[in-house]
Amino acid sequence: MAEITAAMVKDLRTATDAPMMDCKKALTECDGDMEKAKEFLRDRGMAQTAKKADRVAAEGLLGLKVSETFTSASLVEVNSETDFVAKNDGFINLVGNTAAHVFTTGVSSVEELNETSYETSTFSEYFTSQVARIGEKIVVRRFVTLNAAANGCVNGYVHSNGRVGVLVAATCSDAKVAEALAPMLKNVAMHAAAMKPTTLTSKDFDPAFVEAETIGRIEAIKTENEELARLKKPLKNVPQYISASQLTPEVMAAAEEAIKAKLLADGKPEKIWPNIIPGQLARFVADNTTLDKELALLDQNYVMDDSMTVAEAITKEAAKHGGTAEIVEFVKYEVGEGLEKKVDNFAEEVAAQMA
Question: Which of 63, 74, 264, 328 is the most exposed, fewest CB within 10 Å of its CB?
Answer without folding.
Answer: 264
